[in-house]
Amino acid sequence: MNYLILIALVILMAHSSYGQHENNFIDSLGQTVGGTKEELIKIKENYYLIQPTGIVGNIAVYTGSTGVVMVDAQWAKLAPRIKELISTVTDKPVRSLVNTHFHFDHVDGNKAFGRENVTIIAHTNLRERLLKDRVISGSAFGAIIQKAYPTEGLPTITFNDTMTLYDGNETIRLIHFPNAHTDGDAIVHFKTANIYHTGDIFVTYGLPVIDEANGGDIYAMIQTIEYLLSVSNSDTRFIPGHGPVCSVKELSEYRMLLTSIKDQVVAGAKKGLSLEKITEAVTVNKNVGGIDRNMFIGHVYRMVLKHEKMNNKKKSR
Ligand SMILES: [Zn+2]
Questions:
Q1: Which of 208, 236, 308, 311 is 20 to 30 A from 217 in CA distance terms?
Q2: Nearby residues for ligand 1 (ion, Cβ within 5 Å)
Q3: Centroid of ligand 1 to alpha carbon of 209 (angstroms)
Q4: Residue 267 Cα, ligand 1 centroid: separation in angstroms?
Q5: Domains recognised in the chain with CATH numbers
């Protein structure tokens, strides 16, 4: 587990709100995000990462010819600071905001930017998810309830498979990968710059959240990473959902990590071993942080069983 996430967890537990985390986890966390430290990191001319501390997602900033295109928006509370950081590199306003997925630490800021009539663009399923109270699964904090968003926090434009934005020499491709981290994920590709914002399909803190209750699936997550590796080169830069700017090397290591765990669980399941036996047998480098190892293997096991069942059905047809 990322030690900052651990600290946040300890703070939350100290405030005894953890017991009712299902209902007010996000509100409690929202009280603490004011202390977030933000750094604006230049990737190349006109492209930046706003890298935060704590349970706050990464923002990609592109200072285009007609305005700023932002990918993800962190928390509404942090919007003034985000705008201040952007104003140090351009005097143009934020024109559009792309959402990578519906989780609060990436899109709570929609509420602030939406109020200023920034165009918010996202996958159709993401907008659907924001319309109602949702339970987020797979996190280190158990089930988390994310309440329905007010109208101003909703995407104003949605897409299904892909969408393209143009600005001068830059072409920005939004690509939907079904059922990876959630069922409404978009990867954002700045083609000319050779930069991707991957959302939480790729994180650097270790074992990732896979939001199974909202369509997340480890098989598709691995496939998406394989796709990214197949279209990348040594100059490609990846902005993960959380963590520093990465290259192919880190993304390959991440693929290995997920593939190795998934393959070990598949092998165990095929032998008919119990989850307990599989959890005992799976080797995960103990230096890997993120979601608790046993909890993660439990998630993977459930997803593997689901896939095996589907495969068997296909075979018996
Ligand atoms: Zn997420």
A1: 236
A2: 103, 200
A3: 7
A4: 28
A5: 36-258 (3.60.15.10)
